[in-house]
Amino acid sequence: AEIPDDIVNHVYADEQEGLWMALNSNGIARSDAISPISVYGEQTGLEGIVYDIERHQGILHAATGSGLYELDRISNEVSERQASNRTTFQRVDDLPMAWGGVSTAYGLFVATDGGVYLKQEGEVSQISEENTYTIHLSEHVEDRLYAGVDDGVNLLVRENGTWRTEEIEEVSKEVRSIRESGKGEVWISTVDGYVKQIRFEEE
Q1: Of residues 119, 118, 8, 101, the one with CA closest to residue 55
Q2: Which one has a higher pLDDT value, 43 or 146?
Q3: CA 53 to centroid of chain Cα atoms
Q4: Cα–Cα distance measured from residue 56 to residue 84, given in angstroms and rounded to the nearest whole number
Q5: Residue 53 and residue 28: Cα distance in Å, rounded?
Q6: Is the pLDDT of residue 120 over 50?
Q7: Rounded distance between C-alpha atoms, residue 85 and residue 57, angstroms
Q8: What is the pLDDT of residues 14-65, one digit of tens each?
Q9: pLDDT of residue 85
Q10: What confidence score (pLDDT) does residue 83 get?
Q11: Cα 31 to the chain's mean position, in Å?
């Protein structure tokens, strides 16, 4: 079977060697080597253009233009190789338009146009209020995340059991991607293709 869209926004590989694809035309497609492509969209409760797919605590989450959705727990107990009509998605609270998420030991952090949210043990709390396009968990500094916003990068740091936000880099464009090198160097890219390394004072 063919993928029902010419544009795929994100790709995620699961433990069963299946490939999940976030489609630009609303919905998710899944394919593996031994079965046809399964498509998940409005008929399974998933609404909006899908920008990102993330698995947290065994539950598949989809960040879409309509908010954050999760595969319900009953459906998660069904083999992912089975038909999509046995799968349903549920919207998580009333989160705004979601761009992406990252799974951590503290919970699922979600980047939305209403700020960063933390989904933890079924509860959702707001960490920041600034429109956030991407979020990256530091692999080199404990309890640190980087958030790409409208005009730069914010730092999320955990102190005394709570998360605080501070601006660490200002640019004139939306920051859409953040990555770390093996040496801990932090690189950002903007919506118009601008790439820059963030430099920190020695810690």
Answers
A1: 101
A2: 146
A3: 6
A4: 20
A5: 9
A6: yes
A7: 23
A8: 877 788 888 887 788 888 766 667 778 888 889 999 999 999 998 999 999 9
A9: 46
A10: 41
A11: 20
| Both structure tokens of 199 | 């430099």
DSSP per position, the chain: ---S-S-EEEEEE-TTS-EEEEETTSSEEEEETTEEEEEESGGGT--S-EEEEEEETTEEEEEETTEEEEE-HHHHTS-TTS-GGG--EEE-TT---EEEEEEETTEEEEEETTEEEEEETTEEEE---S-EEEEEE-SSSTTEEEEEETTEEEEEEEETTEEEEEEEEE-SS-EEEEEE-TT--EEEEETTS-EEEE-----
Enter the pTM of the model.
Answer: 0.79
The C-alpha atoms of residue 132 and residue 134 are separated, in whole angstroms, by 6
